[in-house]
DNA sequence: GTTTGATGTTGACGGGATACACATGAGCCT
DNA sequence: AGGCTCATGTGTATCCCGTCAACATCAAAC
């Protein structure tokens, strides 16, 4: 019934050695190229040169694998936000850079951005690290420390700023029937209005 | 090879009579109940009491059917926005009501909201009618006519207001890792900040 | 009353997710 | 050394889904 000798074909070893990481890597590559469309178990397994069932030794289900890739995408976004922050000192410039990078990510990496916020059956096992939410929250905390935002309003300000960049990125990224005009000036205008809403609300 | 006499089983007639509309109706019901997860050709066909292939007489592909249901969901959103506007006279109250209803839709109908903005291979054949975008645009146009917004800024203001409500609804609806706290006061605070950003920008 | 075209049905094929049984091989125990 | 064990892969089978080609039904046009 079963063949006595397995043909290893073009594989060097029977065991892959680092399948989990390899799956996440090709998953990110596919996500970058085509969003959530090619993140199936069979397809990713084929990319890595492994049988579909091998995937289940590392992820309980295809949905879990997708959730893990989604988390990787969110962490990539967060990493880029951190990078954009690195060279800014002024709190306003930090705040603006954070939002600008968030939007830029949505525009330049629509595939990753879509996957980052895909609605998934499975939840990630660990917290995002780095976390885009935490980064934005810290930026607003800085504004509190500078006296530009009342500590009592920290949460509502964070909601506000977050909603703006996330909403714009969502609408501008991918194939949306409500896609807005996109230009650097449109984005800067949006960020300026955001700054106004954040700092001038309770005068 | 093929049976000479078809058993009609529990069907009254061989032809359904209104299959296209029926598919959209059950599609909306399924979307309301579980988002995009049960919008497959086979499933919807079964719901309507018809063979999967019958669907293709009305929609070129399953993706097209999904796009049609997505459009229905967007139009439902737009209809609710219009309803919320009906009893408001003041331009500010109209503006606020529009945004509030958008967010309320995201919170109360997460399934429909997700489907409304699903990333779909196929595009809708006709324009949305009514269109949520047009309704929001009109609300800002009113602000122009009242002198509260400069006509030259109409587009950027629309972008701004739209991004806020869409972003918040997206983050607050469904299973998002960045889901914010949700309460009426949080929403009113957001709308007030939006109003400020819309009207006070160019003073 | 026949023809015809719109609308449904069957059956088949290809592909995806995943359950179960089996294979491989590196490291540990004796 | 020689063998046991367990994590990790493979093979096969099953079920479901989307879709094609061929055939069936029926109402309306002629």
UniProtKB/TrEMBL annotation, chains A, B:
One Gene Ontology molecular-function label: DNA binding
Coiled-coil segments on the chain, per record: none
Domain HTH tetR-type: residue ranges: 17-77
Alphabetical UniProt keywords: DNA-binding, Transcription, Transcription regulation
Signal sequence, start to end: none
Naturally occurring in which organism (per UniProt): freshwater metagenome
Presence of keyword DNA-binding: yes
Name of this protein: Unannotated protein
A Pfam family it matches: TetR_C_33
């Amino acid at each position: 019934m079963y063949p006595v000798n397995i043909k290893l074909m073009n594989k060097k070893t029977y065991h892959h050695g680092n399948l989990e990481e390899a799956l996440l890597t090709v998953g990110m590559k596919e996500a970058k190229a085509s969003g959530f469309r090619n993140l199936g178990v069979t397809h990713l397994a084929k990319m890595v040169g492994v049988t579909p069932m091998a995937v289940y030794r590392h992820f309980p289900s295809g949905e879990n694998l997708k959730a893990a890739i989604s988390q990787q995408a969110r962490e990539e976004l967060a990493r880029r936000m951190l990078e954009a922050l690195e060279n800014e000192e002024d709190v306003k410039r930090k705040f603006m850079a954070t939002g600008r990078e968030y939007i830029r990510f949505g525009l330049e990496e629509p595939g990753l951005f879509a996957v980052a916020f895909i609605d998934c059956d499975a939840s990630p096992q660990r917290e995002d690290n780095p976390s885009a939410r935490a980064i934005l929250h810290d930026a607003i905390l800085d504004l509190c420390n500078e006296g530009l935002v009342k500590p009592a309003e920290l949460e509502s300000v964070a909601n506000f700023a977050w909603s703006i960049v996330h909403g714009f990125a969502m609408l501008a990224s991918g194939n949306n029937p409500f896609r807005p005009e996109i230009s650097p000036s449109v984005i800067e205008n949006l960020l300026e209005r955001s700054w106004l809403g954040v700092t001038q609300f309770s005068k």
